[in-house]
From TrEMBL:
Protein task: Catalyzes the conversion of N5-carboxyaminoimidazole ribonucleotide (N5-CAIR) to 4-carboxy-5-aminoimidazole ribonucleotide (CAIR).
Similarity section: Belongs to the AIR carboxylase family. Class I subfamily.
Protein name as annotated: N5-carboxyaminoimidazole ribonucleotide mutase
Biochemical pathway: Purine metabolism; IMP biosynthesis via de novo pathway; 5-amino-1-(5-phospho-D-ribosyl)imidazole-4-carboxylate from 5-amino-1-(5-phospho-D-ribosyl)imidazole (N5-CAIR route): step 2/2
EC number from the UniProt entry: 5.4.99.18
Amino acid sequence: MTERTASTPLVGVIMGSDSDYPVMAEAVQVLRDFGIPHEAEVVSAHRTPGKMMEYAREAAGRGLRVIVAGAGGAAHLPGMVASMTSLPVIGVPVPLSRLDGLDSLLSIVQMPGGIPVATVSIGGAKNAGILAARILGASDPELRERLDGYAAGLAEMVEEKNAALRA
Ligand code: RP5
């Protein structure tokens, strides 16, 4: 699966397999909702290592500003990509059926000093998308306003639920 928005993508969402897409789709959805140009592509550390290297090395030059990388099991993709680009990389541990994602989490989160991956929770692709938006929002006041609006909407939702509890 490959997805690319019309204008130059700012966020690259990559995943080790198309079987990761049901999880990673939440990151893609967030980027769509915030109107952030993005692309989504399967790039495997183990099955397409050459493509992974090319993707990581060319990402900044192509205009990408953040990479969201999801993988499951022996989840080497986010760390390997982070070792070949200075763009911020957000890692999403994708849960597989056997170890519930603990293997994915530990594979992604324990990076050696010097090569950071901002790891979200197991299956936390939604937060990965929001974090990517926040990174871009740091230098984009208009996007930051939309992020503030989103947070205000969450607070409102909680209060609506409280009102329903009190009714
Ligand atoms: C990882 O292996 C992928 O990220 C995926 O989570 C896992 C299993 O891949 P498939 O065998 O379903 O293609 O590299």
